[in-house]
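Run folding on both entries below.
>entry_1
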Amino acid sequence: MPRFYCPPPLPSSGSFELPPDAAHHASRVLRLREGDPVQIFDGLGCERHGVIAELGGKRVVINGITVIDSDRESPLKVLLAQALTSSEKMDWVIQKATELGVTEIQPIDTERSVARLSAERTAKRLEHWQQVAISACEQCGRNVLPKILAPLDIMVWLQQTKTMPDAKSVAKFILLPEGAALLHEQARPQGKILLLIGAEGGFTQAESAAALQCGFTAIRLGARVMRTETAAIAGLAVLQALWGDFQGSSG
């Protein structure tokens, strides 16, 4: 069933007109017709089902709105701190991280980051990244959009992690070649999890030392060196397998 993100509020019954972008996608891209069933969600956890009753020009109206009680969120609250990389790789990380249930994505500017964003480009990239996350939610069935934060310098962000809410219960991990493997016997973190991923050239010694001083635990994902985009997705998948909604899953 086609899914469309629609900013809140959503009605609990009756009819609803899709916003322009969703209407264009429904009529011009998917070429849906009257009578086709659809889903809409607001990015905050609400989902509605309905049937296309009117489709013409730039208008798509859905009738028979019904409330659907569905929760497809992971029990883990994971913030992915991803070093800025090329636009194509960053899009890929945001898309796959969204599918893997990440709660927040914090782009990080490191010394070895390939990408450098001006203030004007940052605003445009944030808007673009949000759309990438929206499309991923439409595809994977999530009803809650991950929060994509404005890029920060790694040293500034590391200091902020020391004073974030419930800082004592936050579990902090940084991927480093000399890190230890995560074990099934390790207890599931009680609070938010931070996963810090370096750029194509990895972290500098000063950056990794600063992270360790800020309470991060160095971990590794096997004996092989992964690309930055692979490391991010593999790390999220491992966390979900150990402590999240991959446990007991058959597919």
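>entry_2
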Amino acid sequence: MDGRRFRRILSRCPMTMLYRLDADAAAIGRRFGLEPGDDPWAGGHIAPDTFALVITAGREEIAGPRPEKLPLRMVPRLWGVPPPPSVTDASRAVYTVRNPDSPFWIGNLRNTEFRCLVPATAFMEWGRPDPANGKRRKHWFACPDQPIFALAGVWKDSEIPGFALLTCRANAALREYGCERMPVILPGDAAALRDWLYGGWDRAGVLLAGFADELVARRV
């Protein structure tokens, strides 16, 4: 992505975080135990209103009874979903989920086919303003024990299928820099990833707590 386009996207979404996926499709496939096929992803920034890789155990079209267990698939999805009909500006997409009990999200989150893993290697959040110029600072964070980690995501079936990232209150490691929210980082073990993709909401919902402080580090 060229710098000018990146800055335009950032200016449209001043409070929306960004993330990076500095790994190619083959490495992502190895990390999550799936076949990447001929996906051309080579790594880089992911910004709102752009396509990104997500990992889903759902069907491409949701209709009829779900098979017992579907294999994982790595597919492109647009970051951002159309807003609820009640929103005045229908062109303003929704990028994150702050309230998983909202009627707008509850049906998709309770249906395991709409939950997805969003691979990442780092994410950005806005911190407290710089005292010199009053502008909020950007801070990048990563997980030292997981070179490629999974963010909790949910997608909606629309004309262009899109996804949003689940968020939670920032943990102490991020609050140190003045960050208020953070994406939900899923534990790296296979059982937790299975719970997010296949488990009932009683198991998946508990994964929305903030990630342990010591497992997130600021990346310079």
